[in-house]
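Researcher: Structure for this, please.
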Amino acid sequence: MLPTVAIQGFEGSFHQIAARHYFGPTTQTAPCATFGDVIRQVAEGQTDAAVMAIENSIAGSILPNYTLLRKSGLRVMGEVYLRIQQHLLALPGQQLTDIREVHSHPMALLQCTDFLVKQPTWRLVETEDTALSARRIREGHQTGIAAIAGQLAAELFDLDIIAPSIQTEKKNYTRFLVIAKPENALAVEQPNKASLYFHTSHAQGSLARVLVRIADLGINLSKLQSFPKPGSTWNYYFHADLEFDHPDQFEAALREMQPVTESVQVLGVYHKGTTH
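Model: Predicted structure, token format:
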């Protein structure tokens, strides 16, 4: 039986596409208004797992989500790299010449700037969600209005793609983490990636000592993100993503990190996602 997966956004969103990539095309999703709600749904057992965006190849890290994850007590059991392709959607029969307004999330509008500036008469309307913009066009039978959203929204709400792949950056990826309560996290055989938090002393060279020990084991540090440590001034803890060839390398890394860190919290050990 497939799990119920919490996602941020509405039906047809890129979060739902990512959930289907990981769990399968018939996965049931539970839309949430905020990322905090996503975490809460899983932590309270209302859903079996969640898919949560954590960074974008253009916009960078979604910093509040790292903090949500660290405080949640949930486990990372996988990741999805999703290529973000934005399409211009409208009711069947509509043409570009019929469009007067374009509705979408502000980030989607920004991602499609080069296309939109070529249509100076169009009114751009910011909304809370790409897929919701598409759904409103279908439910309201809105002619003359288009939405910027993904392929799944076009399929779910029976809209035509009147201009495909209008995003300015054609290789734009968002990384999503798959998370669950520790007792519900699926076991992974031969994992090759791990996410963790660690905290070092404020002494000179303390971070460098950690990084050298990781590198000496042949492990690739694919992500290092610093965060202010609450209750202290100019002290930081670090989120790290480690990529390795064999789980023994990661176990060795944990042993090597212990003497040069003040704390280490493993968030999850899983299979590295791929880009397509």
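Researcher: Any notable elements?
Model: The chain has a mean pLDDT of 94. The radius of gyration is 21 Å.
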